[in-house]
Amino acid sequence: MPRKMVAVGLVIIAAVVFIFYYPSLKVGFFADEYQFLERAASSPEQYARSIWDYPYFRPVQFILIGIEYFFFGSAPVAYHVVQILLHLANTLLLYALVSRVTQKWQLGFLSVLFYVIFPVYSPAVFWPAVADPLSTFFYLLAICFWVLYLQTQSEWYFVLTLAT
Fold first, then answer.
1. How many C-beta neighbours within 10 Å does residue 121 have?
2. Of 65, 114, 119, 132, which one is least surrounded by beta carbons within 10 A?
3. What is the rounded distance in angstroms from the CA atom of residue 86 to the CA atom of residue 133?
């Protein structure tokens, strides 16, 4: 497949993601996001301890929220941009996975267009406190590394699969 077609496809995918999820930039915080922000605003030691006190054990999500709070404070637009970028990364990983497994970039392209516009997934992008996009990123990354390991038998990909 020509590299120019891949580049054009990736630009189209990115544009569709940003067009579909641009409205999330106008949504403020709601639900448990305030609780996450309150915890992030505490001292780093208290925040680190609060990871263990929360009813759901999601340390990577807490780390991401802590980093976001460090850089953006309580600006909701920035948190939504991060969610959109995570969704875009997931979309590109899915494209790479489907294209690699099927050996058909067109099928990968159509798959991710469906994934991007599928309305069931949109709350995960509109709601920064949801861990689904972050979890999906690591799931897809591990699966991509596993497929690369199976195709190349490179121990490096096997180690990366276990690390993710």
1. 16
2. 119
3. 6
